[in-house]
Write a structure and sequence with these properties.
Chain lengths: 279, 338, 307
């Protein structure tokens, strides 16, 4: 049933767990007695942009949130560079992994710069002393996201896209190797969506960050990701390079869609044009 | 540039200094006000270590400790409310909502009315125990049993359980009050909240709590800021949310409990002061907490001074004024937050 | 019965030479000379002082905490006395300003204020609000000693005993028991044998129908409860300025079933005098009213005491 491994490095079983930023082992997730993900073994490749796709309720957000220890684990294990995620102090995890959940909210009146400073929280001690390296990290995060000119503005005065960039800036200030984004383009208009995705891609290309996103739009997922993970019913149906995972059969199996797949004129990657439901 | 955040550190500092000045001024004013007229000159003489014995007694033994207790309890209620609002992420949260007020009230009523042979001076300790018991009850009931979320305190559940427990304890308290033969006056004035009868002993009893807990509250400022971003973000930033919430709530309950021993249940100070502070300096707790403390102190001192000076020799309990201002504001908030 | 008086007297005997020493609920009080400037924080103390011919320099006459003020019998006699706050919240400032050499406080109501009062002036705490008749008589003597009028206090107590004995002579032998109740516009509270008025009326020779219930010396009953008790004699304490709840009950056919109503033995007294009145003057009034009302005789109530 699972076609795991298609298009992925062939020697993956031989690569030690410590080389993967995130990996799961017999992971079982759920809320109370309802099980969302029964058993999952997954490895996320380092230094790449990975997007998790799948229909609503397939468990993609649940998985992402669990990877960021926002959800308790039913059974099994999550590994952060080979270390048991839940055994690590939360603060240490926060220095290595940042997540931007869906629809974050901030108290009224908070300025962009104040928000970005929160990203330094896991690096600061009991007393909020602002060291030089903290200052540099905040400036860097503002620069990376193009939010420096908005630094003094209250969050609620910004557009949706600017606000999302401010939140990403906060996550960047955490200076982690791994950045998880849960549907970062939701509620944004198309240009702001691209803005956020470009940013994610650039962070990966220039900083070497491992980026894992949950995305709804298949074409965006293909275009801005190196790897795709396709999920259905709490299981990974396919995982591999973005260019090879999306096939008409997969679309039918995962999304119940009949689609044409064309080559993107820019990137040569697949471009999906759905035309009918299989149901 | 028009959009620059209104809430700056400089603004907070300015407001803080302003409030500190107001507290100082009001404190000096309050030294000269009371049922017995004391000319300003005489009060100044007393402050300079001279003056006649009656004025000394009035100013130093009767008024000064009251002012101290009013300032301290006001600051403590305000800090408690600010912390609870931060943890529960609900602007309507206050010591009353988390079982503290109701627990203290029931314990005080039981102590006064159902235990005739109670030792004198035991009331504040009964109230303190009641405050913690009320909080423990709310905590116990809002825990998710057998769930996978471990011991994370869920803010909404906490608030709802708090309201229910407050109502239940309030009803029990009414039951005791109805059966009370006499001594109702003392119980009622405690339940309304009053600084009446505060002496040096009481001031000395509240002071150590304040000296430990108010700075502890300030140390929680950053944790509260992070908690304010919500459970997901707080976790993402490396905070152990359940433990952090519990710790902050414990400090908040200790503050309110200790304040209750000083002035009874001063209504709405814990709601009003943090709110006004948030309007003035924004939601960052490093600014919000000190400004709320100062506001609470000024509020209670103003209420008590007004209560002493309005209809002498009758002393209108400070709690009546704070409730008079606080209750409409609470309703306004309720309408606004829907 | 007079154990308290004996104890207090013993204290006085011990200290004839060096001023006076009087025991009270919070210890003992040593005064070099009898007190001249007294502040009274309960009506019974005020009553006693007035009866002893001492004019207090201050009294808790303020209306606060639901206080209805000095009872009517006492009010005209205390008009000239400065009010120093209310009983629930005495004004410490005014008390201090009146420069007292003695403060009389209630052991229960002022239990938490006591330390502050004691810092202003020597303060004696007595069980007035929760005291029995014996307690109050003991206090009359103690207050007499504190203000240097022990002989007058003893005379008051002797007169009171004589008056009570006289009243007892009126009491009809074998008369049925009574139920006594305080009635407000919202409730009716019966007073048992152990309550102050309940025990006082028994002392005068009529039997109280109700024993203490679950440790409560007084408790609320509804009309049905009252009908179930079916008292042969009903003594009601009402306030002239209020419409008691019994006025509404009278329209109910159940009310007519009560034996006391059928026998025409419902007596009415002023509750302001009877429930807040304590001390020698109050007792004199209460004994007189009991006789005038013809309650003791088990005869139809006199004009002023008709329901």
């Amino acid at each position: 049933m699972s076609r795991q491994g298609r298009g992925a490095p062939t020697l993956r079983k031989a690569i030690p767990m410590t080389d993967f930023p995130l990996a799961t082992e017999k992971l079982r997730l759920g809320y109370g007695s309802s099980i969302i993900i029964p058993e999952l073994d997954l490895r996320v490749a380092g230094g790449r942009v990975t997007s998790i796709i799948g229909p609503n309720g397939c468990g993609k957000s649940t998985l992402l949130r669990a990877l960021a220890r926002l959800l308790p684990v039913g059974s099994g294990q999550i590994h952060l560079y080979g270390q048991a995620l839940h055994a690590l102090p939360s603060r240490e995890v926060a220095r290595r992994l940042a997540i931007l959940p869906q629809g974050p909210t901030a108290p009224e009146g908070l300025s962009v710069e104040e928000l970005v400073w929160f990203g330094r929280h896991p690096h600061q001690g009991r007393f909020p002393v602002r060291r030089e390296e903290d200052r540099e990290a905040v400036t860097w995060a503002l620069d990376q996201t193009g939010m420096r000119i908005f630094a003094g503005r209250p969050l609620e005065s910004l557009s949706g896209g600017q606000r999302q960039r401010a939140w990403i800036a906060m996550s960047l200030a955490q200076q982690t190797d791994i950045l998880l984004l849960d549907e970062p383009t939701t509620y944004l208009d198309p240009s702001h969506q691209l803005e956020v995705l470009h940013l994610a891609q650039r962070l990966n290309r220039e900083q070497g960050k491992t980026v894992v996103m949950v995305l709804h739009d298949l074409n965006q997922a293909v275009r801005y990701s190196d790897d795709l993970i396709a999920m259905k019913g709490g299981e990974v149906v396919a995982q591999g390079e973005a260019g090879t995972v999306l096939t008409p059969e997969l679309l039918r199996e995962v999304f119940d869609l009949k689609a044409h797949i064309l080559a993107d004129p820019d990137t040569g990657k697949p471009h999906v044009i759905p035309y009918a439901l299989t149901r | 540039m028009i959009h620059t955040s209104r809430y700056t550190g400089r603004r907070a500092l300015f407001i803080g200094v302003l409030l500190l000045g107001a507290a100082l001024l009001l404190g000096i004013l309050a030294l000269g006000l009371g049922a017995v007229k004391t000319p300003t000159g005489d009060v100044v003489q007393v402050l300079l270590g001279r003056g006649d014995e009656l004025t000394r007694q009035l100013v130093l033994e009767l008024r000064a400790p009251r002012i101290v207790v009013a300032l301290l309890t006001g600051a403590m209620f305000a800090a408690s409310g600010a912390m609870m609002q931060g943890v529960i992420r609900n602007p309507l949260a206050s010591p009353d909502i988390i079982g503290v007020g109701a627990g203290a009230g029931l314990a005080a009523t039981l102590f006064l009315l159902a235990w005739p042979g109670a030792p004198p001076g035991g009331l504040p300790w009964a109230a303190l125990a009641g405050a913690w018991a009320g909080f423990a009850l709310v905590l116990l009931l809002s825990r998710e049993w057998g769930g996978h979320t471990g011991n994370a305190l869920h803010p909404v559940r906490l608030a709802l359980v708090g309201v229910a427990v407050a109502a239940a304890l309030g009803a029990a308290q009414q039951l005791v009050l109805v059966r009370a033969p006499d001594g109702l006056g003392a119980a009622l004035s405690f339940l309304t909240g009053t600084v009446y009868g505060a002496d040096a002993v009481r001031a000395a009893r509240v002071l150590p709590w304040a000296l430990v807990l108010l700075p502890a509250a300030l140390l929680c400022a950053r944790t509260l800021d992070v908690l304010n971003l919500g459970e997901d973000l707080a976790t993402s930033l490396g905070t152990r949310v359940g433990a952090a919430r519990l710790f902050c709530l414990a400090v908040a309950v200790a503050l309110a409990g200790a304040a209750v021993t000083g002035a009874g249940i001063l209504g709405f100070v814990g709601l009003l002061a943090p709110h006004l502070a948030r309007l003035l300096v924004g939601a960052r707790h490093a600014r919000l907490l000190p400004v709320a403390m100062l506001l609470g102190a000024v509020l209670v001192l103003a209420a008590d001074t007004l209560g002493r000076a309005l209809l002498p020799p009758t002393e209108v309990p400070a709690g009546i004024f704070t409730t008079l201002v606080g209750a409409p504001y609470f309703l306004y908030l309720l309408r606004r937050t829907r | 019965m007079h154990k308290n008086i004996l104890v207090l007297s013993a204290f006085t005997l011990l200290s004839v030479a060096a001023g006076l020493t009087v025991g009270h609920e919070r210890g003992t009080l040593d005064l070099k000379t009898p007190a001249r400037r007294v502040v009274a924080l309960e009506y019974s103390f005020l009553d006693t002082l007035v009866a002893l011919g001492v004019k207090p320099v201050g009294a808790a006459l303020g209306l606060q905490g639901g206080d209805r003020g000095a009872p009517p019998y006492l009010a005209p006699r205390v008009k000239a006395i400065p009010a120093t706050g209310s009983r629930a919240q005495p004004s410490l400032e005014l008390i201090a300003a009146s420069r007292p050499d003695l403060i009389l406080a209630d052991a229960f109501v002022h239990q938490d204020t006591y330390p502050q009062l004691a810092r202003i002036a020597p303060t004696a705490a007595f069980q007035s609000r929760r005291g029995s008749l014996d307690d109050l008589n003991a206090q009359t003597l103690a207050i007499g000693q504190l203000v240097g009028r022990e002989a007058a206090a003893k005379r008051l107590l002797a007169d009171q005993r004589a008056l009570i004995n006289k009243a007892r002579a009126f009491a009809k032998k074998g008369a049925p028991s009574f139920v006594a109740a305080v009635v407000t516009p919202r409730s009716l509270t019966v007073h048992t044998r152990e309550s102050f008025v309940g025990s006082f009326l028994e002392d005068l020779g009529r039997k109280n129908q109700l024993p203490v219930k679950d440790g409560q010396t007084q408790y609320e009953v509804a009309l049905e409860g009252l009908v179930a008790l079916n008292p042969q004699t009903l003594v009601l304490f009402t306030a002239p300025d209020e419409t008691p709840i019994t006025d509404a009950w009278k329209k109910n056919p159940l009310w007519q079933k009560i034996a006391a109503v059928q026998r025409g033995r419902v007596y009415q007294f002023n509750r302001d005098n009877w429930t807040r009145g304590r001390g020698p003057l109050a007792l004199r009034l209460m004994v007189a009213e009991t006789i005038q009302s013809r309650l003791l005789q088990d005869a139809a109530p006199g004009a002023d005491f008709r329901d």
